[in-house]
């Protein structure tokens, strides 16, 4: 065991933790986005609430929620540690640094983007997760399911929150744009034939998923979804 | 004058080394642990020796002035390394490599040493490949070869244009492995400034820690110098900025004779000087002569662009003068031919001190071969050239890029402009068959010794020699000496010999700092370089040499009275480092001229204008000068000549012909 | 032809020794020729300083042809200056314009302490190599070189990785001061060759452990190293090293 724990505390090990948790969170995003997209049925949230109900009651999903929270926490803590360590690896900074000549700004700003996402996440969890798990969803829909959709409608009447959500999705997009393919590189899954494909999927993933997420609050705010 | 004993073992030439190896006294492993060897230098010769000695069990200390042993100037060698493997089945053999080397050296090298070199050449390739050196390969997975000047077989192994780098990194990794195991103690950013002698034997060195300026005393049962060549005496050369003669020169002052100092190799294919600011010259590997054709316009002062000069108005002067070897004549011959054309007014470029090295012909040839391979029927000229360019790029890409970087011209489009430049020094500390200098316990390897190349070195033979010395020769021959030193205890560092040597160094340092003159070190170095290049360079004559001896003596006086070295001795002081080196170069320069003046013949890289054939070829005088000139330093600019007669028992000595 | 007509302002980091605090100092140089190399321009400046009785600027350099890896200047925010694929010593003044202001700083990393002015201590690289960047074969142990055919593609890839000159530009430019490109180049070179197999997994573990002990940062795959590497060492090497490291740690039973 000591040898394994040493492996995880090495520079590559730490990155692998970021990579694995990152990929896991990516898979979560996919599920989350898929379920949320039920709002587009325009059925006053009936389908959406069915999905939400399933997620809230299925034991496997509930169990995975702990894993998710664990993964998220690990990703955050490890990310913060990496950022601090990496900062310390260059105690004296350059007077002139021309990073844009050799790398993308978002690749260099994963810590910042991550922090923005963390702030968003706290708000987001407060808005929905705390409500559905702890304080309770006040109303029920026509099917008798807890009406999470109504909570959503209510939340997105606040223009500031809508703006925060939309902007945060831009952060998410850039975070993913680097993170998606970076995770593969970290795991050593680099291949002349497949790496371009991974990059391409990564690009579309980081555009589409955040875009879908961002459209929801906006559409609700403008009453395009009923 | 006395004669020197080179300690060549008796017997048949082909058996000498084998017999020697099986009869040389051995040191048992327990004793090796108590024997300390100092290796100064971490180039191919030094790194390979230090690693091998440590593997054998000796305690080794290794020194270099760069920040890492991996940066020794061997790293810059481009073209390749010779070995008599006969992988190409073109009739190569140990004897042929031996013969080519003696002949290439214009019959001024020692037969026994050169034969040993040829014998171990194969082992070098084996060793390097085992270390993971990625030498170039063919599609079948076997090693590839290219041809080099002065030979008619393909025996040169290479790694693109970075052979020296790859070989050095191999030796460096072997060295670092021993450092990791605690068997070699590595001292980087250290410069050796004195040899410490006790009872006539070398027992240690004084080295300066270049970061703190501290002088350090280091003991060794034997001291090995592998400190490279002294081409920088010319100021401009293809050597690195730090390459110097200091270690060898200090040894010379301590009684190690300096042999054939005037044998300098001027490499024919270098990028020409572009202005006064020039700090060094860049080589374009000899391998380019494989695929490039050298020419100048047939008309004097032809100012047309190269591409505008039609084929029939070009003079491929090497092919014209030397039909058998053409562009692949040895370096000394190619260099002189270029100088001759430029002096006669046929030079090209703004300075008119350059000739063309043109790849069009072979690009086209390669293009046709590629088109054939790829089943392209009747390809047009553009396609052929495109395909050919790809081949050329794969072979020489990095050299072409380097050329473009420096000159701003694209050699794929227009021929390269090249001119000869100082590149290698065949002279160096005199060593016997054991690679020991005339100071017992002081050894010298690699370019720093004089041993194997006579008056001219063939391309790709220096890497071979450095690694032969370090991996396969010294580790055996040093046993002969060390087996008699088992009773010698490590000297305490407060031994009077150490104290005295250190004081002497300290005095020199203080003197230099305290001159507080008006001119920088570079000023004197440039002046020296000019004197040397004009009078002791590609062509020499009596009057010029005499005048330059006087000029150098004056320069020496000026240096010691007017040099300006800022800063102090107890800090990182690059000007002080340079000053120490230039002080030694000035003294060496004088000796080079003395040696060149003494040698009333032309041979290899030493061309005395008074001694040439009617066609302008070098004219040797084997009656009078078939010897190694080894100079003893008597101090105050006095030198005594000692001769080692060269006996050619296995090769018929003849006028060198490449026609 | 020897002098040109470029006039430049230089802001150069001066620092007396490792312990002292440094600062950027302004200098002016005149009549610079576009044919000069960047280091030759520094020679001109130093000559100017020396004859004025000032201390010249100390910088590392040796071969001046892009192969020894000694030169190491961070020029206008980029290691080895504005052009790709070359070292500082290969940079020529024709890459600048008359009137330019050029800022020159040393490599900056915890693991590369400044020794003086623009000179830093890169011995950490040597220690990483001595931790495992070799094949354990003593002199004299080798078989005939052609007994071991190596597919050309592998030999070429190994060569490309082996082309690293150990300059440290990758560390200097990386926002994390990570040495992954350098270390992975050596790991890859040896992992690609049959000779390197026996020690493959031990090597990668030991080299990575040493790299971490030296205080380099953690790789976050920004790709800056690859973009700035004068020898074009590829990020694929880092992926290969990660792969080997993971196999070594989680699959192989061998302890480092
Ligand atoms: C540009 C160029 C290209 C070449 N191409 C080829 C080629 O293709 N094929 C070929 O065979 N040969 C070639 N050569 C020649 C060959 O590279 C050298 O002759 C050979 O590498 C010298 O090796 P060395 O070990 O003797 O010395 P070097 O590699 O020069 O090493 C000298 C060592 O001594 C150290 N040192 C020096 N003085 C001191 C001191 N006072 N104190 C402490 N340390 C000191 C240095 O730090 C260094 O480590 C080329 C040479 C040049 C310049
Ligand atoms: S990987 Fe590139 S940048 Fe890094 S040390 Fe090697 S050559 Fe320099
Ligand atoms: S000085 Fe050698 S690489 Fe620049």
Describe the fold and architecture.
The complex is a heterotrimer of chains A (226), B (659) and C (256). Chain A is mainly alpha-helical. Chain A has nine helices and no strands. Chain A has a single domain (3-221), classed as Fumarate reductase/succinate dehydrogenase, transmembrane subunit (3 helical TM bundles of succinate and fumarate reductases, Up-down Bundle). Chain A has helices at residues 2-9, 11-36, 46-57, 59-88, 105-108, 110-135, 148-155, 159-186, 195-221. Chain A is globular. Chain B has 18 helices and 19 strands. Chain B has helices at 16-23, 29-32, 44-56, 94-104, 111-130, 163-180, 246-253, 288-291, 317-321, 331-343, 360-373, 381-407, 462-482, 496-515, 521-536, 542-562, 574-598, 622-625; strands at 36-40, 59-63, 81-82, 156-157, 184-187, 190-198, 201-209, 215-219, 222-225, 258-259, 264-270, 293-297, 314-315, 355-358, 416-425, 428-429, 442-444, 627-635, 638-645. In chain B, the strands form five sheets. Chain B has a five-stranded parallel beta sheet, with helices on both faces. In chain B, helix 4 (94-104) crosses helix 5 (111-130) and helix 5 (111-130) crosses helix 13 (462-482). The mean pLDDT of chain B is 95. Chain C is 33% helix and 13% strand. The longest helix of chain C is centred in the C-terminal third of the chain and has 16 residues, at 236-251. In chain C, 61% of the residues are buried. The mean pLDDT of chain C is 96. Chains B and C meet through helix 3, helix 5, helix 6, helix 12 and helix 13 of B and helix 1, helix 2 and helix 3 of C. Bound molecules: flavin-adenine dinucleotide, iron/sulfur cluster and FE2/S2 (inorganic) cluster (FES). Iron/sulfur cluster (SF4) binds at residues 164-170, 181-182, 185, 229-231, 233 of chain C.
């Amino acid at each position: 065991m000591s040898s394994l724990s040493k492996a995880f505390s090495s520079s590559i090990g730490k990155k692998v933790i970021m990579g694995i948790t990152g990929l896991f969170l990516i898979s979560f995003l996919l599920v989350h986005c898929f379920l949320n997209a039920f709002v587009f049925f325009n059925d006053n949230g009936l389908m959406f609430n069915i999905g939400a109900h399933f997620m809230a009651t299925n034991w496997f999903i509930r169990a995975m929620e702990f894993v998710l929270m664990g993964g998220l926490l690990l990703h955050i803590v490890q990310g913060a540690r990496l950022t601090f360590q990496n900062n310390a690896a260059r105690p004296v900074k350059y007077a002139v640094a021309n990073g844009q000549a050799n790398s993308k700004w978002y690749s260099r700003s994963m810590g910042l983007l991550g922090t923005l996402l963390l702030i968003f996440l706290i708000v987001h969890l407060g808005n929905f997760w705390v409500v559905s798990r702890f304080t309770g969803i006040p109303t029920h829909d026509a099917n008798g399911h807890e009406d999470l959709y109504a909570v959503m409608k209510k939340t997105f009447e606040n223009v500031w929150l809508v703006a925060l959500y939309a902007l945060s999705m831009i952060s998410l997009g850039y975070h993913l744009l680097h993170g998606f393919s970076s995770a593969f590189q970290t795991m050593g899954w680099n291949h002349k034939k497949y790496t371009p494909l991974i990059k391409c999927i990564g690009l579309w993933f980081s555009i589409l998923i955040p875009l879908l997420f961002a459209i929801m609050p906006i559409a609700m705010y403008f009453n395009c979804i009923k | 004058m006395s004669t020197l004993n080179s300690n060549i073992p008796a017997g048949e030439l082909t058996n000498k080394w084998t017999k020697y190896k099986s009869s040389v006294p051995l040191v048992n492993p327990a004793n090796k642990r108590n024997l300390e060897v100092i290796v100064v230098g971490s180039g191919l010769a030094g790194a390979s020796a230090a690693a091998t000695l440590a593997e054998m069990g000796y305690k080794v200390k290794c020194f270099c002035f760069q920040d890492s042993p991996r940066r020794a100037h061997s790293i810059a060698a481009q073209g390749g390394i010779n070995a008599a493997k006969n992988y190409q089945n073109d009739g190569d053999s140990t004897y042929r490599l031996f013969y080519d080397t003696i002949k290439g050296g214009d019959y001024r090298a020692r037969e026994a040493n050169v034969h040993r070199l040829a014998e171990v050449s194969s082992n070098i390739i084996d060793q390097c490949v085992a270390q993971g050196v990625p030498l170039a390969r063919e599609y079948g997975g076997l090693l590839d070869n290219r041809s080099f000047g002065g030979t008619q077989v393909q025996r040169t192994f290479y790694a693109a244009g970075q052979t020296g780098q790859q070989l050095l990194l191999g030796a460096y990794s072997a060295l670092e492995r021993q450092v990791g195991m605690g068997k070699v103690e590595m001292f980087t950013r250290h410069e050796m400034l004195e040899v410490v002698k006790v009872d006539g034997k070398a027992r240690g060195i004084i080295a300066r820690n270049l970061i703190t300026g501290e002088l350090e005393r280091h003991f060794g049962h034997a001291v090995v110098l592998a400190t490279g060549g002294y081409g920088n005496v010319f100021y401009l050369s293809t050597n690195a900025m730090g390459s110097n003669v200091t270690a060898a020169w200090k040894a010379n002052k301590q009684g190690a004779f300096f042999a054939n100092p005037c044998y300098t190799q001027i490499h024919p294919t270098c990028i020409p000087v572009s202005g006064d600011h020039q700090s060094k010259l860049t080589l374009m590997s000899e391998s380019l002569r494989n695929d490039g054709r050298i020419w100048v316009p047939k008309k004097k002062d032809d100012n047309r662009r190269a591409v505008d000069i039609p084929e029939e108005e070009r003079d491929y002067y090497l092919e014209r003068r030397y039909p058998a070897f053409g562009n692949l004549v040895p370096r000394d011959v190619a260099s002189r031919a270029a100088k001759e054309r430029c002096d006669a007014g046929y030079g090209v470029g703004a300075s008119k001190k350059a000739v063309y090295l043109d790849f069009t012909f072979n690009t086209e040839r390669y293009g046709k071969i590629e088109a054939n391979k790829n089943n392209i029927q009747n390809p047009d000229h553009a396609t052929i050239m495109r395909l050919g360019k790809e081949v050329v790029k794969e072979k020489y890409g990095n050299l072409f890029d380097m050329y473009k970087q420096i000159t701003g011209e694209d050699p794929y489009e227009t021929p390269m402009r090249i001119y000869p430049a100082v590149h290698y020094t065949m002279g160096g500390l005199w060593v016997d068959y054991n690679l020991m200098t005339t100071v017992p316990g002081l050894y010298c390897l690699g370019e720093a010794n004089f041993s194997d190349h006579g008056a001219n070195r063939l391309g790709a033979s220096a890497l071979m020699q450095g690694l032969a010395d370090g991996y396969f020769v010294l580790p055996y021959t040093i046993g002969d000496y060390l087996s008699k030193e088992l009773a010698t205890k490590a000297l305490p560092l407060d031994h009077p010999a150490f104290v005295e040597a250190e004081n002497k160094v300290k005095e020199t340092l203080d003197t230099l700092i305290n001159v507080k003159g008006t001119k920088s070190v570079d000023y004197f170095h440039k002046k020296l370089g000019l004197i040397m290049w004009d009078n002791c360079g590609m062509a020499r004559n009596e009057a010029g040499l005499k005048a330059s001896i006087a000029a150098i003596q004056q320069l020496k006086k000026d240096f010691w009275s007017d040099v300006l070295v800022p800063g102090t001795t107890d800090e990182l002081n690059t000007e002080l480092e340079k000053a120490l080196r230039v002080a030694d170069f000035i003294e060496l320069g004088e000796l080079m001229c003395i040696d060149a003046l003494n040698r009333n013949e032309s041979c290899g890289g030493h061309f005395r204008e008074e001694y040439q054939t009617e066609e302008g070829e070098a004219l040797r005088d084997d009656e009078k000068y078939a010897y190694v000139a080894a100079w003893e330093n008597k101090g105050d600019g006095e030198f005594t000549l000692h001769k080692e007669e060269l006996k050619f028992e296995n090769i018929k000595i003849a006028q060198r012909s490449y026609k | 032809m020897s002098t040109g007509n470029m006039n430049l302002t230089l802001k150069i980091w001066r620092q007396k020794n490792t312990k002292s605090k440094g600062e950027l100092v302004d200098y002016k140089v005149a009549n610079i020729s576009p044919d000069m190399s960047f280091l030759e321009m520094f020679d001109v400046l130093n000559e100017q300083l020396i004859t004025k009785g000032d201390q010249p600027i100390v910088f590392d350099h040796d071969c001046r042809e892009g192969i020894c890896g000694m030169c190491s200047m961070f020029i206008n925010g980029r290691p080895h200056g504005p052009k790709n694929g070359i070292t500082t010593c290969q940079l020529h003044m024709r890459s600048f314009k008359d009137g330019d202001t050029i800022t020159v700083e040393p490599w900056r990393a915890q693991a590369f302490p400044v020794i003086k002015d623009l000179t830093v201590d890169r011995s950490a690289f040597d220690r990483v190599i001595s931790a495992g960047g070799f094949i354990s074969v003593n002199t004299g142990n080798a078989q005939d070189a052609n007994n071991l055919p190596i597919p050309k593609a592998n030999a070429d890839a190994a060569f490309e990785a082996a082309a690293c000159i150990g300059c440290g530009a990758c560390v200097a430019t990386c926002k994390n001061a990570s040495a992954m490109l350098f270390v992975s180049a050596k790991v890859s070179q040896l992992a690609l060759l049959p000779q390197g197999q026996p020690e493959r997994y031990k090597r990668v573990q030991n080299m990575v452990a040493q790299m971490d002990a030296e205080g380099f940062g953690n790789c976050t795959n920004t790709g800056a190293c690859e973009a700035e590497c004068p020898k074009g060492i590829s990020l694929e090497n880092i992926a290969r090293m990660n792969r080997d490291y993971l196999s070594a740690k989680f699959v192989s039973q061998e302890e480092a």
